[in-house]
Design brief:
The chain has 223 residues and is an alpha+beta fold. The protein is built from 9 helices and 4 strands; from the N terminus they run ααβααβαααβαβα. The protein has one domain: NADH Oxidase, CATH 3.40.109.10. It starts with 10 loop residues before the first helix and ends in a 13-residue tail after the last helix. The structure holds flavin mononucleotide.
Length: 223
């Protein structure tokens, strides 16, 4: 089967048209498109390039139903052709992963000895003091959600709808899908083709309500 790989809509339209779909058709997502959604999703940035995101692709009906049971029976989980269990692995700060990231940088011609040494010394210190996050779960979620955001926009650009979900019981998902203790479940992401009734745009607050100028609470202006 020939699959059109050009995005259906450009970036701006993909962002504007994306809605959190609540109902899905049974149509499957072509493998090449799914591959592209995953491949572009994991181009997201991460602290020290540690890439803590991990994704379990759930497509078998029995497994989707098992997941649905852990997700307050939300219909999207049972209906969407694919649901990703989006996780973050707290173990990526270990020496082995740091070495892998350094190796990857070398393969891509960007790693210098001084930067590799900086990574070897700074990363353990950063995770001991963690000045910018309270818990490791906050850190893994911070990163995993960025990859998820990339995926939702890429998906929409190929005409694929999505629904990110926090409505699930983490302990149940972990047990049902053999997720290690050191791995956090960040969210579920249903992917497929939205069905009627299509979700309507709920609006967004204006930027001057959510952005500030120079310090928190100060009226926003661009110049
Ligand atoms: C982190 C997160 C968790 C969410 N959890 C759920 C969920 O469990 N079930 C659901 O139907 N929608 C969920 N949503 C979708 C939101 O309800 C939706 O994004 C919001 O109403 C705005 O609508 P829009 O995305 O269509 O613009 C979630 C969205 C985010 C970002």
């Amino acid at each position: 089967m020939f699959v059109e790989m050009q995005p259906h809509v450009g970036l701006i339209e993909a962002i504007k048209q994306r809605r959190a779909a609540r109902a899905f058709k049974s149509d499957g997502i072509p493998e090449v498109i799914l591959q592209e959604i995953l491949q572009l999703g994991i181009q997201a940035p991460s602290g020290f390039n540690l890439q803590p995101w991990r994704f379990i692709l759930v497509a078998e009906q029995a497994n989707k139903e098992k997941l649905q049971q852990c997700a307050f029976n939300q219909r999207q989980v049972g209906e969407a052709p694919v649901v990703l269990i989006c996780c973050g692995d707290r173990r990526v700060s270990n020496k082995e992963n740091i070495a892998s990231v350094i190796h990857l940088g070398e393969e891509n011609g960007m790693m210098t000895d001084s930067y590799a040494n900086y990574m070897r010394s700074s990363i353990p210190e950063f995770f001991t003091n963690h000045p910018s996050f309270g818990t490791m779960e906050a850190w893994t979620n911070r990163h995993t959600m960025l990859a998820v955001a990339h995926m939702m926009i890429v998906a929409k650009s190929f005409g694929v709808d999505s629904c990110p979900m926090e409505g699930f019981v983490s302990t149940q998902v972990k047990e049902a899908f053999q997720i290690p203790e050191a791995v956090d479940v960040c969210c579920l992401l249903a992917l497929g083709y939205a069905d009627e009734p299509l979700k309507q745009y709920g609006g967004r607050f204006p930027i001057d309500q959510v952005c500030f100028h120079e310090s928190y609470g100060e009226s926003f202006k661009l110049s």
